[in-house]
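Changelog-adjacent note: as of this version, every example in the card shows the full chain rather than a window. The one below runs 302 residues end to end.
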Amino acid sequence: MKTLSKPGSPLSSKLVLCLLAVYIIWGSTYLGMKIATKVVPPFLLSALRFLLAGSLLLVIGHLREKVWPTRQQFLSACFVGVLLIGIGNTTVALAVHYMPSGLVALLVAAMPAWIMGIDWAFFSKKRPSALTMIGIALGFLGLFLLFNPFAQHDVRTFPLWPIIVVVVGNICWAVGTLFVQRLPMPTQITSTAIQMLAGSVFSFLVSGIFEPGAWSTLPMMTPEGWTAYLYLVLIGSLVGYTSYSWLAKNAPPKLTATYAYINPVVALFLGWAIGHEAITSMIGVASAIVISGVVLMTLGRK
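Full-length structure tokens:
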């Protein structure tokens, strides 16, 4: 790993810019998906998004890496892509169609808990630290307060069933993340491109089954919707990925991991400021508890 330069150096400035890009861009994709799915159904939207993003990234990967994957590497990347993109990301697009985007971001913020729990149970068998366990418990406590099914239903304006969808997506994303470290994978950019394209194909298939007439919605897409779609492809997928990729190679892991609790804050703010999503005192308290739990999970990670 490269050593970070002194503050004020070009490398230090690039570090700050990449962190801000991951914080803001990935935090804003929740609202972007909500806007884009107002007309086009979630699975078709995700399929089209990652078809274009994956195709562009595949060209970039070929030009920069100049290495084609083996058959085994290709199949591994496709398998991971279905878990991460086809299921993990698309379930988020489905959830934000029915729920406030900021609250969905808080559900996704619990991802470190799923990764560490599944890793402990099925992969490394390494027990998480006490601090991590406290963070996991605190995070899920905050989520329970946020989506308490026993609360009065007249104060809730959205259904709760998308929570199950997001949880399934989180588990698939966690499994895919753990398999990336254990399967023969292509070079970095090419691998991500193949994952996006595999997830796109999977989303097209699911859309064909569960979203009849989805293609007929494309002519009705508003300029706002197309703008959101292009933002998700060019900024959310390409710029966001490039920034995160650079951080993964050049920044301390715990610094890079801070995106996990900054993204929900950005998503909540944008959902309130642009998407007109309400933030009540209970949402504020529960959100603070969830984010505190994620901070402890990150700090306690070995």
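Structural remarks: Residues 1-8 have pLDDT under 50 and may be disordered.
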